[in-house]
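STRUCTURE:
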C-alpha cells in the first residue's frame, strides 16, 4: 500500500532502514506538515484511500498512529476497496481502530452470515447500517442484527431477497428506534407490514420497492399504523394503486409509485388532496397517468419540488403548462418519452418555474433549439439537462446553456441535433463545473472540442464520445490528463484511437470505474490490446465495467489476467 511504500522510502533516505531511522527521521519530518492539520482534514485525506490502505496508515510512525486513530464515525467498505482482503478480517481490523463507529455501509461488499457475526460482536455503537445488495443474508442473520444492535436508527436491506416477513418481525422485536428502514426487493408481504406497528412512533422513511406481494390492503393498514411517515417508496409494487394512499398521513413529503401499473389519475388525485404538503412524487411508467394527474397536483400541491412522469400514459403541453402555473417551486421534472411535449411546455416552465435545476427531455422529439434557449435564459440555476434523441435541439441550444447556465453540471446530447466544436468550446467556457458530458453520436466533433473541455472542465467525472469518429489519440490523451477525476469513459467506435490513448488513461485516471472500448463487426477498432489492457488493470484498481466487444486484438488469456488483477471485481463484456 502507499503507506508501506512511504515508510520504505523514508527508511532508505535515513540510511540502514533500522528502527532508529524510522523513529528518528520520520518523526522529525512528518509532524512538520501533519501537526498543522485538524482531525476533520485528516479524515478527509483518509476518505480518498481504499480500506486496505487506511489499515496501514497508523503503522508508519507514532505521529501517524495518533493522526489516523481518532474516533471515526462513518465507514464504507465495498468489494472493490477490499482488494481481495476477506471482509470479516477487515471488519475485525477496523473495529480495533474505530471502536466507536456509528455509521457503517457494506453496500456492494457481498457480506454473508459469517461477516454479520463479526459485525454484531465488533461494532456495538452502530446506529446506521447499510447492507444493500448483500443477497446472501437470510432471516436468521437479520434477527442476529436486531438482537445485537437494538439501538439502530437506520437499516438498509435492499436487495436481500431472502429476508422475509419472519426476519422482519424478529428484527423489530428488538429494534424499536428505527426511523429509516429500506426493504426494497425483500420477500415482504402484507402480513410482514403488521410488525411495523412496533416502530410506528419512530418510523419516518420506508422503502418497500419491488415487494411484489404487497397489496392495497396492506399499504392502507400501514398508513393507519405509521402516522409519522414522511417518505414512502413503492416502486414496482404492481398490486398497489393510489387508492391505498387515500388515507395517507398529511406528513408525507416524498412518494414513489414508479412502475405501479394500477395507479391512475384518480389515485394520484386522492394522494394530492390528502397530502397538500407533498414535495416529491415519482410516477414513472405508470401507464394510466395523463395530464389530469398533473393538473390535480398543480391544484393541491403548491410546494411540489420534484415530479417524475417519464414514460407515463399521455402527457402533453396542456398538463405541463398547468403544472408550471401551479408549482412555482418545481426544481426537478422528468418528461422522458413524451413526444407530445413541445416548446410550449418549455416556455411555460420558463415563465412559471424559475428554480428549475433538472429537466429530462429524452425522446421529447418535438422540442427545439428555441424552446431550450428560452428555458436556459429564464432558469439560470439549471444543473442537468437531457436532450438525447431530440433531433431539433443542437448547437444553438448548447450555446444558450453556455451563456445563461453557469452552474450546469450534466448535459446529455447523444443523438440530438448536430453539435459542433464551436458549441462545445462555448459550453466549456461558460459551464466549468461540468461533471457529466454525453456527446455520443456527435460525429462533427474533433479534438478541438476535447481540448476546450480539458482546459476548462477539470471536475469532469463522466464523458461519452461514442461514435465520434474524428477524435484522435492527441485529443483524448490531453483530456484524460486534465481530468483526473474521470470515473466513466465511453470511447465506443472511436475508430482512430490506438493503444496510446489506453496508456494515457492508465497513467491519469486512477478512479476509473467504467470504460467502453467496444466497436462493431469490421470496424477496425485498434484501441484495445493485451498489453494496454493489462497496464490499465494494474493502474485502475476500481475498474468495475469494461466493454471490449469486437476488439479482435484482445486474447482470452488477457481477459482472465485482468480479472485476476482486479480480484474478479470487474465485469468484462466481449
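SEQUENCE:
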Amino acid at each position: 500500500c502507499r503507506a508501506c511504500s512511504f515508510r520504505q522510502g523514508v527508511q532508505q533516505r535515513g540510511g540502514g532502514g533500522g528502527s532508529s531511522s524510522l523513529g528518528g527521521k520520520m518523526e522529525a519530518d512528518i509532524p512538520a506538515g501533519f501537526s498543522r492539520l485538524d482531525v476533520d482534514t485528516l479524515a478527509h485525506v483518509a476518505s480518498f484511500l481504499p480500506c486496505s490502505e487506511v489499515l496501514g496508515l497508523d503503522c508508519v510512525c507514532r505521529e501517524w498512529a495518533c493522526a489516523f486513530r481518532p474516533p471515526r464515525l462513518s465507514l464504507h467498505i465495498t468489494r472493490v476497496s477490499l482488494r481481495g482482503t476477506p471482509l470479516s478480517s477487515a471488519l475485525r481490523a477496523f473495529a480495533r481502530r474505530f471502536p466507536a463507529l456509528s455509521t457503517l455501509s457494506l453496500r456492494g461488499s457481498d457480506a454473508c452470515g459469517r461477516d454479520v457475526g463479526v459485525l454484531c460482536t465488533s461494532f456495538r455503537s452502530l446506529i446506521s447500517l447499510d447492507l444493500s445488495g448483500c443477497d446472501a443474508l437470510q432471516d436468521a442473520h437479520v434477527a442476529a442484527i436486531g438482537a445485537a444492535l437494538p439501538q439502530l436508527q437506520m437499516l438498509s436491506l435492499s436487495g436481500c431477497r431472502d429476508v422475509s416477513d419472519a426476519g422482519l418481525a424478529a428484527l423489530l422485536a428488538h429494534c424499536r428506534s428505527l426511523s429509516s428502514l429500506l426493504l426494497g426487493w425483500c420477500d415482504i408481504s402484507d402480513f410482514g407490514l403488521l410488525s411495523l406497528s412496533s416502530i410506528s412512533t419512530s418510523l419516518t422513511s420506508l422503502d418497500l420497492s419491488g415487494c411484489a406481494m404487497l397489496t392495497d390492503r396492506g399499504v392502507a393498514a400501514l398508513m393507519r399504523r405509521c402516522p409519522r411517515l414522511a417518505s414512502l417508496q413503492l416502486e414496482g409494487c404492481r398490486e398497489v394503486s393510489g387508492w391505498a394512499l387515500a388515507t395517507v398521513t398529511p406528513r408525507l413529503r416524498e412518494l414513489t409509485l414508479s412502475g405501479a401499473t394500477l395507479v391512475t389519475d384518480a389515485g394520484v388525485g386522492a394522494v394530492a388532496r390528502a397530502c397538500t404538503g407533498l414535495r416529491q412524487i415519482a410516477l414513472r411508467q405508470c401507464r394510466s397517468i395523463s395530464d389530469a394527474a398533473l393538473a390535480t397536483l398543480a391544484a393541491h400541491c403548491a410546494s411540489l419540488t420534484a415530479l417524475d412522469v417519464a414514460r407515463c400514459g399521455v402527457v402533453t403541453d396542456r398538463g405541463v403548462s398547468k403544472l408550471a402555473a401551479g408549482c412555482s417551486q418545481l426544481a426537478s421534472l422528468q418528461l422522458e418519452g413524451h413526444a407530445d411535449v413541445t416548446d410550449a411546455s418549455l416556455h411555460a416552465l420558463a415563465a412559471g418555474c424559475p428554480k428549475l435545476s433538472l429537466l429530462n427531455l429524452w425522446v421529447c422529439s418535438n422540442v427545439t433549439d428555441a424552446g431550450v434557449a428560452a428555458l436556459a435564459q429564464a432558469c439560470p440555476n439549471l444543473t442537468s439537462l437531457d436532450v438525447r434523441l431530440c433531433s431539433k435541439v443542437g448547437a444553438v441550444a448548447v450555446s444558450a446553456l453556455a451563456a445563461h447556465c453557469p452552474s450546469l453540471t450534466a448535459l446529455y446530447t447523444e443523438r440530438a441535433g448536430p453539435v459542433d466544436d464551436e458549441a462545445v468550446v462555448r459550453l466549456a467556457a461558460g459551464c466549468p463545473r461540468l461533471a457529466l458530458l454525453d456527446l455520443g453520436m456527435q460525429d462533427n466533433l474533433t479534438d478541438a472540442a476535447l481540448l476546450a473541455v480539458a482546459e476548462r472542465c477539470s471536475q469532469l467525472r463522466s464523458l461519452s464520445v461514442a461514435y465520434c469518429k474524428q477524435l484522435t489519440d492527441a485529443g483524448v490523451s490531453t483530456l484524460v490528463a486534465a481530468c483526473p477525476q474521470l470515473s466513466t469513459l465511453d470511447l465506443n467506435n472511436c475508430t482512430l484511437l490506438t493503444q496510446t490513448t489506453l496508456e494515457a488513461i492508465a497513467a491519469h485516471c486512477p478512479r476509473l470505474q467504467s470504460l467502453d472500448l467496444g466497436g462493431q463487426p469490421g470496424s477496425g477498432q485498434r484501441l484495445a490490446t493485451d498489453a494496454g489492457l493489462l497496464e490499465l488493470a494494474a493502474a485502475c484498481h476500481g475498474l468495475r465495467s469494461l466493454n471490449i466487444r469486437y476488439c479482435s486484438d484482445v486474447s482470452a488469456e488477457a481477459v482472465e489476467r485482468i480479472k485476476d488483477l482486479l480480484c474478479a471485481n470487474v465485469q468484462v463484456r466481449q
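REMARK: The CA atoms of residues 265 and 292 lie 6 Å apart.
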